[in-house]
Amino acid sequence: MTADLAELAVVPEWRTQPESLTPGFRPVRRFRLRVPLPAIIALVYLSAALFVLWRVWKGLRSSVLPDNQDQVMMEWFFAYDAHVLTHLQNPFLTTLQNYPTGFNGMANTLLLGLGIPLAPITLAFGPTATFALTLTLGMASTAFGWYWVFQRHLRLHQVAAVVGGAVCGFGPAIVSHAHGHVNFVFGALLPWIAIRLIRAGATKRPWRDGVYLGLLVSWQIFIGEEPLLLFAFGCVVFGLGLLGFDFRRTVTWGRGAVRPIITGVAVTLVLTGVPIWWQFFGPQSYRTLDHTGTSNDLLEFVQFPEHSVGNLLWTTERLSTNPTELSAYYGLLLPVVIAAIVVMWGRPLVRAAALAIGVMLVLSLGPTLDIAGHHTGIPLPWAALREIPPLSTIVELRFAGACLPLIAMLIAMAIDRILRSEHRDVRILGLGALAVALVPLVPTPLDVVPRPPVPGFISHTMWQKYVHGGSVVFAPLPGHSYAEPLRWQAVADFGFPMASGYFVGPNVWGVGSHYPDPNFTSELLKSVYETGTVPSITDADRLEFITDLQDWDADVVVLPHTVRDRQMYDVLTALFNRPGTYLGDVWVWQFDLKGAATG
Q1: How many CB atoms lie within 10 A of CB 435?
Q2: Residue 488 and residue 494: Cα distance in Å, rounded?
Q3: First-to-last C-alpha distance (Å) of the chain
């Protein structure tokens, strides 16, 4: 602020020059374009995001991220958001997937906070453009937001703040989630929520600031609730640490923050109360997730993420469940962070951050400890916490990525201390150690593969002849490992519902799962698709098949080209007891509700 005032006080050079006595003479004013430093930093972050995602932008219509169905799901969400906006439908319950039961929109990541404002882009350029745009802006704006926190509110050196922001926006967890988890990549609101919380303790306008806080939190809820919940958990643990290490200042902050926080909670409840009630008590709701295989391995903490400079030099076996969940792959960063904690231990902020990071990393290991793929059976704290709402809705391995801002803060504070040191050797050794830890984590561009073509049966609207108010049953049924039918449904402008789908809904035990309740047909088609084995079909099997089609209110069964399409064709021919019709790059079997296969 002082620097800004000093700059305003400088008299422009042209003002000090004597004016000519010639009547009508006017001095020529020199125009200089001055770009504020924050704008330059924002452009640097944006350029870095475009570098990571340039292959995605280059192949908007022709390519897709490999080995991952989450991109298809996120693009479906964006297309669905635009659809409900233009058709004025209830977004919180839809039967377009999992027909006729449907699924709970609020219990899924519909991205309404992004999809609704960006609906014009989706309608004009397609959901893939919205997907690429939100990833790009998500990385850049998240990095800039945390840079602003570190520079303006922690008063750190500009270089330290820039590096800290880059760690937040382009860290291992963010680049990993860019394979399909837009809700985790777009963390742009979290640093501004943090700023409101920091200011809450000394604000002179508690009601106004509380309203701002409530608006930010409400918007974040409609972008992604799990990132917000992880952020809130980290804030609570961090706050408890400050309470223990700096009691007086924390209590002082707490007294001033009561009114703005209460106001923020009230505003949030008014704006999101009904949707949240729908999420937990509405149709197809659930209160806990299936946590099978969602923990980190201890060895992951020192491995390099797949799309990083370090992985180019030292490739290791992936221990995580899929490419979107590399949140714990910090390489050499954690040992350097530990060293920084030891050096700066005297600061309460450092102690509280160390406590929060330690707690979240331990929780990310799950209920029992795994080391290099071996199950030790050693119990961990998550075993006692995973059934407690709302923690029961968190995928625990994501705790490792949620502490990224705290890790970035410690890195930024360490750089600030090194740069301000009067000893040249300290600066060289300190910056060298940080470079060894950070450079291997620099992300490389994400890979893409050719996108499967849309069958002519969909793109040429041939489906309209076969769908008469019922559903389309794709073989195999869309799900976690095969989600292309979601894209075809969006291409058809949601003109038909489909059986099954890729979403999160309650299973037979009421636990949230990506796998809809199985039946005979879904299990049979899944087995054929995964193994290629065609079992012998009996009359009893045909009766169960017909019952499932009736439960789905099916109009038509569609077999596109897949890795097992020959085997899938054989089993469907046996189930229908007649061959299908080849039309528009797919095989088609029409079906009526009375259980008769028609020609």
Answers
A1: 11
A2: 9
A3: 78
Phi and psi for 367 in degrees, rounded to 5?
-75, -25
| Distance (Å, whole) CA 311 – CA 313 | 5
Identify the DSSP state of 153: I
Q: Are 241 and 351 in contact (CB under 8 A)?
A: yes
What pLDDT, on the 0 to 100 scale, is given for residue 321? 67
Buried b (16+ CB within 10 A) or exposed e, 382-420: beeebeeeebbbbbbbbbbbbbbbbbbbbbbbbbbbbee
- pLDDT number for residue 17: 45
Q: Among 500, 497, 489, which residue's Cα sits nearest to residue 458?
A: 489
Angle at 186 between CA 181 and CA 191, to 5 degrees: 140
Q: Which residues pair with 513 in a beta bridge?
A: 505
Helix (H, G, I), strand (E, B) or coil at 556: strand
Give the CA count within 13 Å in the CB-facing half-sphere of 538: 4
Residues contacting residue 164 through CB under 8 Å, at least 6 positions apart: 146, 147, 150, 156, 408, 409, 411, 412, 415
In 10 A of CB 124, how many CB atoms? 10
Length of the chain: 599
pLDDT at 26: 55
| Token pair 């014009």 in the structure block, residue | 120
pTM of the model: 0.90
Helices and strands in the chain: count of H runs, count of E runs: 26, 12
The count of other CB atoms within 10 Å of the CB of residue 346 is 7
Whether the bond between 390 and the residue before it is cis, its omega within 30 degrees of 0, is yes
Distance from CA of residue 64 to its chain's centroid?
Answer: 17
Where on the phi/psi map is residue 372: left (φ > 0), alpha (ψ -120 to 50), or beta?
A: left
pLDDT of residue 41: 96
Query: Which candidate, 379, 350, 339, places its Cα nearest to that of 362?
Result: 379
**The pLDDT of residue 441:** 95
Give every residue of the chain whose pLDDT is below 50, as ranges.
1-22, 25, 595-599
Measure the CA–CA gap between 75 and 115, rounded to whole angstroms: 10
**pLDDT number for residue 20:** 44
Rg (CA), the chain: 28
Count Cα neighbours of 482 within 13 Å in the Cβ-side half-sphere: 18
Q: Does residue 256 contact residue 209 with C-beta atoms inside 8 Å? A: no
User: For residue 463, how many other CB atoms are within 10 A of its CB?
Assistant: 24
Element (H, E) at 227: helix 225-245
Beta bridge partners of 582: 587
Give the residue ranges of DSSP H helices in 53-117: 54-58, 70-87, 112-115
Distances (CA, A) of 335 to 330, 331, 332, 369, 441: 10, 9, 6, 20, 14
Please give the pLDDT value at position 416. 96
Of residues 337, 396, 388, the one with CA closest to residue 363:
396
Locus of tokens 């509280």: 352
365: nearest Cα among 348, 388, 383:
383
Q: What element of type H or E holds 265? A: helix 247-281
